């Protein structure tokens, strides 16, 4: 009934707006274009970045932001799309980094082969551990994934056979990497790789959630029992999501290896996974852009807050302000709690919430 | 022989520490379905509170004798208070959103250690303690540090107190019933949220006491201590059955011993690894092990 | 119904997981005797009861003795004088019989009426120390009903108290409810029409989450056509009192 009456007044106002919304729909392409040409830009962004956009330092930070934006997007495949709270996502990221590094260092494989094998190793690990972890549901699943990730973390830090380099981590062999990926002069190349990884992740996630499988994921997230009633086995669908997210994380590990020039044990810790969780919740779980925005913001804030903490401006403050400001993790932890409480749905839902408030006040 | 005695006592001491963390964790999960990721932070608060008081900053408290007892009391009280604040301010407003409750405790679990390292530095601080507790005593030919015994004694006291509370008091009855069926407790006219605050207070108290005495065991405090113990406490909770205090006690002893012996007799770190893998294995074999009963 | 109802439910709606389970239930519980809540499986009987008690999120109006209770938390509402025996009996299996009863004690003028409970169910006195999980279904139902009688309640809500019980126990439970209803009004969800016929004065029939019929119990159950239409039973004579299968 109501649908029959609404078009008449709406049609008048949408005619000019239609073209605008169609243009607006292309904003991701415009942003992408801007990001692609960013390395040639000498534009200074004081406050946001230390040097001009195209300087190696800025590009390094931007690339890290893009990398974590992508990683958070992949992680949201589990959390926001399938409703799986994994505490072990760091494992597959670290696996991609360490495995590629091992294939380079220990097996002496050429880079391309090592990269492919490294990612395959991460995906295979996700397949094996996912097929085991998914036998339990709810918080049990969270704890099994946490246990496996912790086991991985312990293994890496104990440095069995000198493979992982223990607490120090292990640098990637510069001489075995293609020369265009090594050195400060080639930061732009690494930046483009990070950007490509982000685009790849967004595309994969976007396609996946719109596929028939994606619709089952949504059903699992809403109510797993109901999916079972429809005669579908959630296990296989959940495993697909787990392996896909794991493989994407492994690619991320590979990009991280190139970007930082080595593998570090920090990427194996449960804190690393928790920070992914913070990014996704901050940006908005289950939304197209939310996790990416959360990942980029978190990484940027983490870096900038770290710089801020070391700066003179903070050192001169009274202790009450200086102490919390000098701890990025404290600020991010508090921010996270605040978002969980005050902003259900994260930043991505903020515009629609504001719009609704505005309409209610009108 | 003396090695075995020493390892056993150390394992028991570690188990006692695990129990102090796990008992509260288990009660909180059993009653509220909240896996409290901030529980390690509560332990750290207890540890730092005790360290702060025992370093002579609290009048009357100090590193020796009754002064140290007062410091432990202070640290435990601060931890308990922190737990109550955590429940009232962070967990309670999210009562209808269980997953967000867990997420919020994750945030607190990140923020508190960061704040501690902001205030007192990220390096380990030497933990002061009374002379009497820093020595060793001879047991079957081994020189066993006294602090192991202190931890075990504290854990036994907490276990007995918890069992009396659960078995003999009305509040304990409400907690036991709530672990089984929270909604039904409400339907009998009982405000179960009071029990939530109560178990957080109890859990925070035990964990903070664990932190205070854990300082003796490790000889130092650092901001990440609580978080690194938390994962082993998870193992204990799952092994012992969620919501079961006695189960947690037994599991804590087993895990503590297994970890110590495996770490000593095989490669270092293998014990930790074994315990963590045990967690996964247990959950897979007994997925229902998560819903335990109080005993 | 001449006297004003003890419990007046108006336009009760319940939405769970984005799905409407109740679309607007109206019902009155008479100030005396048993009011039966009937309907086919899935009609929303249990959800109505849970909605009245605030155990599921609900909208609408629920007046207890003229006072609005929607918006009150369950425990506050229950303390105003409601005894509830839920569908699955709501027994705490790990607690003893005595502990199950003690949990239900509320501070009142007269103190808990253990005398009455033990007189009606001598079995519970004998099994005081037994773990409730090891009781038979009938004994568990006795604990559940015993809990509702312990306090001086204004209203007792019993959700399918005879479900899955042996015929002899069904009779026993029905007798206890009949006696309880002499003092306190009872809202009884029941599938066993013989029990309804024996106990209920008024009845409310739900269908698809709405009130489909409300009136005198005799009127409905005497009309075979209406009974069949509303409850989906009644081909041939009504099921005899004891032959209740778990439907």
From TrEMBL, chain B:
Keyword Ubl conjugation tagged: no
Record GO terms (molecular function): transmembrane transporter activity
CDD domains, alphabetized: TM_PBP1_LivH_like
Keywords assigned by UniProt, alphabetized: Amino-acid transport, Cell membrane, Membrane, Transmembrane, Transmembrane helix, Transport
InterPro entries registered for this protein in UniProt: ABC_transp_permease, BCAA_transport_permease
Presence of keyword Cell membrane: yes
Pfam families given in the database record: BPD_transp_2
Domain of life: Bacteria
Membrane-spanning parts: 6-27, 34-54, 66-90, 102-120, 149-166, 196-218, 230-258, 264-285
Membrane topology label: Multi-pass membrane protein
Location(s), subcellular: Cell membrane
GO cellular component: plasma membrane
GO biological-process terms attached to the record: amino acid transport
Family designation: Belongs to the binding-protein-dependent transport system permease family. LivHM subfamily.
Protein name: Inner-membrane translocator
TrEMBL record, chain C:
Alphabetized CDD domains for the sequence: ABC_TM1139_LivF_branched
Gene Ontology terms, MF aspect: ATP binding; ATP hydrolysis activity; branched-chain amino acid transmembrane transporter activity
Domain ABC transporter: 7-233
Family matches, as SUPFAM superfamilies: P-loop containing nucleoside triphosphate hydrolases
Protein name (Swiss-Prot/TrEMBL): ABC transporter related protein
Record-linked SMART domains: AAA
InterPro entries: AAA+_ATPase, ABC_transporter-like_ATP-bd, ABC_transporter-like_CS, BCAA_Transport_ATP-bd_LivF, P-loop_NTPase
Any single GO BP term: L-amino acid transport
Organism whose genome encodes this protein: Streptomyces pratensis (strain ATCC 33331 / IAF-45CD)
Family under the similarity heading: Belongs to the ABC transporter superfamily.
One Pfam assignment: ABC_tran
Record's keyword annotation contains Transport: yes
Gene3D superfamilies, A to Z: P-loop containing nucleotide triphosphate hydrolases
Top-level taxon of origin: Bacteria
Keywords, sorted A to Z: Amino-acid transport, ATP-binding, Nucleotide-binding, Transport
Lineage, broadest ranks: Bacteria, Bacillati, Actinomycetota, Actinomycetes, Kitasatosporales
